[in-house]
Structures are given as structure tokens and as C-alpha cells.
Amino acid sequence: MGRYIIRRTLFAIPTLIVISLIIFAILDLAPGDPTSQLPLNVPTEVRERIREALGLGDPFFISWLKWLKLMVITEPINAFNAIFGTCIGNCTDPDRIISWSSRTPAFNIIIERIPQTLWVLGIAFIIGILIAIPVGVISAYKQYSLFDNVGTFVTMVGFSLPVFFTGLLSIIIFSVWLGWFPSFYSTTHVVDWTSWESIWFQIKQMIMPVAVLSLFNAAALSRFTRASMLDNLNQDYVRTARSKGLRENKVVTTHVMRNSMIPVVTLIALQVPGIFAGAIITEQIFRINGLGQLLIASLQSADIPMVQTLTFLFAFLIVVFNLVADVTYGILDPRIRYD
Amino acid sequence: MATTQEQVEQQTGIQEPGSGEQHRSLRQDVWRQFKKHKGAVVGLVLLILIVLATIFGPILWPLDPYQINTANASAPPSTDHPFGTDNLGRDVFARLLVGGRISLSVGFAAMIFGLFIGTAVGVISGFFRKLDGPLMRITDLFLALPILPLLLVVILLFRDPLQDRFGEELGIFLLVVFVIGVTSWMQTARVVRGDVLSLKEEEFVLAANSIGTRRRNVIMRHIIPNTLSPVMVSASLGVAVAIITESALSFLGLGFPASFPTWGRLLFDANQYIQISPLRVVAPGVMISLTVLCVNYIGDGIRDALDPKLRSQ
Fold first, then answer.
1. Which of A106, B52, B68, B281 could form a disulfide with A97 if both were Cys (CB 3.0 to 4.6 A apart)?
2. How far is it, in rounded angstroms, from Cα A217 to Cα A149?
3. Is the pLDDT of residue A232 over 90?
4. pLDDT value of residue B110
5. Would an 8 Å CB–CB cutoff place A301 in contact with chain B?
């Protein structure tokens, strides 16, 4: 198992390098140039120096390698220094990836945006799991019952409705018509944990985005849970467990569920990077200034370093969670042997 | 073709008792099972209605979807305009019908393109052992790409050059179909490869090889027709994914231009007027959701119908 994990991790590295090359190559073809916005009276000489400082003069492979070094070596060291107060490498004037539109280090902006994204999407993800698993388990156990039929229909609908439509629909119903919740998320609101009013405001503005996203997450997951439970419910070992006189409760929870949850857990791990992709659309609907909104804004202002950094982070999350899913599958399912 | 079909029947073991007198082909059997799935049948009927409405609707509906009439802007629903008008006084219903044409053609074209790549990659890597490793590594790599951010980047960068080359409408259409197709073939390739790996060890392939059938004909006549069932399921999923992706891109303002009303674009444009005319948001949203729901139900029905365990019941 240890060897498998090491092999899988080593394989993830070339994957990430190739992905970074693809991202870099696509963006290198971009027509945008940060010096085109400079005033016309800036002399050509100065303009050239600015281009050089931004690293625009280098040939493709050199600029890619420079960027990759910044991304995977320099920035993690900077983060390490910042967290632990150490001084490894050049810590007085460290090299940073600079966003073109805000002229500040890209990672500083990203760190500012992470809490908003994690608050809404993280909670939606957890609620989604908490709804999906019981619904899936009960649907499968009582297959073709009323609960199952209604549940299957609702999950099918939840799975088919795109988030941008359910989001807008909830705004129409709950903000425009009923006026219960604000139609957009106010990120300037700082939660004051001593005041009920402040906490209530935060809950009110989070309800709609969280509900919309957790419905979507729950739908796919509960369909999968149901299918996985059904696969196991008719197995011989279940009949054996019943025939030796185990209580039904115990048969379902310790025998069937434990086996059915193996693929479900891996699917949950695989869905984590999807949260951040979902953020792109959800944050646009509810105007949450998180990572997804940052990506769209950077794209529109042709802020190439920012787009590269964010896209690479998304890719990194996907590769890491694929790895996590594979490894947990191996740990949870003793039938899988890798060596 | 007839021999392969018998082979399939033997493989899947669905020779029902009494089939001697009334022989049913695999296709009839699948259809019979498909009809039992109520959701799938309703989905199929609705989808056909939607497709017909988008094909013939713009011809039959008298109002012009591009006719601007600012005197009658943002009008509520009436007998003349069943869904009201937009902020420039254009008829929402007429725009919905025209928008459906583009959304559905993007969905189907991207699905066909994705299926073509997926099936080709799957068959090649299943059939030729030397290419299997590299092709599957490429598939893994594509699965690890952050699809939505990359789609946005690619569309933003290549929209203008392609529009200059092929004209405004065709340029963006080709770009959207291409990018959705190129990023959605991986699951099909994996499933088809698995099927081909087991199919090529079957006796009918051995028989075909032994009578000297050319390799190309073995692939075209014996292998590909037998991978049809997983491909059909992928096809239905592919249409749903393509329609949702196109709408999401248009919704983010990075798909089709405003002069080109797809359902996603209509939703994006209506978003600013959500307070004044909420129906403008609901109508295209319902159309996208309904189409995707129908397609997903059809996919469910096909999957059940092709499952020999369920069909023999």
C-alpha cells in the first residue's frame, strides 16, 4: 500500500507539469498585453523595461519555467515563511507572482477571497452529504416504495436543473416576491458573534446559495448512494447475516452500509474540486466575491498571471483529490490489492 | 450484421423461452424494455415535441424575434406576447423558439463530436496494445484538467479570431461545439476501451480473423456495432452535459453574443431585469431544465433497457 501511494504521488507530478504547460501555452497566445494600457507618452525605452520586469520578453519555454519555479517553489516557500516566521531563501524581498490588474501578489488576493468561497460552498457541500446519504440509503432499502419514487424523482430533477437556473429561481421567489432573503451576498458584512442580529443576517444571506448548491450536490450523491446500496443489498453475505439472526438494523448499518459507502466516499473526494468549479457560477449569481468571481473578473480584465495561478490551483486540487480518492478506495476496500 | 446480432444475443443470454416461433431481434427487445420505463417514454415524447417546436416554431409563430419595438418594452404577458416582451420590446416567445434551435444544435453537435473522439480513442486503445498506454495517459490527463476555467479562457481568447474567419455566427458555434466536444469524450473512451478489450477476445472476432477479414473491417463491422450500448448511454449524458455547459458559458457572458439568443444567453440577458420581468428568466431556464431532464430520463431508460439482468425479468 505504501509503495502504491508513493507510485501514485510520483505519477501526479508529471501530470501537473503537463497541465501547467497546457495552461501556460493557452494563455501565452492571449492577445492582451499589460503595457498596452500605459499612457502613450511613456517612452519606448521605459515601456521595454516594464515589459522586461513583467517577464514578457523571454521565449516561451524560459518564461514557462520561470513561472513554474515561482508557482511551485518560491510561492510555497514564501507561504511557509509567512506562517512559521522563518526565513528560508530570499525572505526580505521575495519573488512573487504579481497580478497585472491590482499590482499586488496574486496569492494575497487569493487568500483574501478563500474564506467567502469556503464558507458558502463548504457548508453547502457538507449539508449535501448529510442529506444525500440517508436519502440514498432509505430509497434503496425501500426500493419502489413511495419514498423511493418521490426521492428518485426529486434527485433526478435536482441533478438536471442547472445551478444558474435554480439560483435565479430562488432569487425570484424568495427575494423578489417574498422578500425574505437578500438577493445578493454582502461580503462586507463581518459576522459579530456576540450579536444575534449580525449572525441572523449572515444566516439569511447564506441560505439561498447554500440551499441551491446543496440540492445539486445531494442529488448526484444520493443517486450514487442508492445504486451502490442496491448492488450490495442482494448479495449473499446479506442473506447470511440475516439467516444467522442478526437484527435488521444491524444488517443494514454494519453490513450493507459499510460496504456500500466505499465507492460513495471516493465519489465525495472526487467532488471536492467540483465545489470550486461550482463556485464560478454560484458566485456569479449571488455576487459572492470569492475565488470563482475572481477568476471571471481576471479573465475579463486579461489579468493573465491571476488566471494562470487560479487555473493551476484548480488543476492542483483535482489531481490531489483524485489521488486521495484512489488511496482511500485502497484503504477502505481490502479486496483491492496493488502490489 | 445479422450474425453479429445473434452473437450479441448469445452473449447476453437473452434467448427467451418460446423465441423459436416468434423471433425478436435485440433491437425489438430493447425497445420493449425501454417502453416499460415510464419516465423515459414521457421524456422521449417531450423531447421530440421540444425539437419539433424549435424546428417549426419560428416558421409558424408570426412575430419576428429580432424586431425591436421600444414602445412596447418589458411588457407583461398578453395574448399577443404569451411570455411578454424584453427590454427592447422583442417577443420573448419568438426568441425562445429561435434560441432553442441553437441550444439544441450545439448540444447534439457537441455530443456527436465528443462521441466520435471518445469512440475512436476507446477503440484504438482497446484494439492496439501499443497505443493503449499513451492514449489512456492522455485520457487521465484530460480528466485532470480544470474544464470550466479552461473553457472560459479558450473561448475568451479564440472568439474574435474565429469570428473574423468564419463569420460571427458560425465562428462562435464551431468554437463552442469544439471546446465542449474536446473536453467531454473521456468517459466514453474509457467505457468503449473496456468493452473492446473483452470483445476482441470473443469467438466471433476470432472467426472473422480466421477467414481473413481485414483488420479495418473487423473493427468497423464487428467491434464498433457491439460497443453501441455504452455509446448510447454516453450519448444521452453527452447531450445533457453539452446543453448545460453551453448555457453556463452563455450565462457567464462568454458564450454566444447578444445578437444570437441561445437559452443560456436569454437567461444572462434577462438576469438584469429579474425584478421587472421575472418570466423572462423563468422561461429559458425551464426550457433548459426540461430538455436536460428529458435527456437524462431517456438515458436512464436506455441503460435499463440494455441491462440484460433487468431485461430478462
1. A106
2. 19
3. no
4. 92
5. no
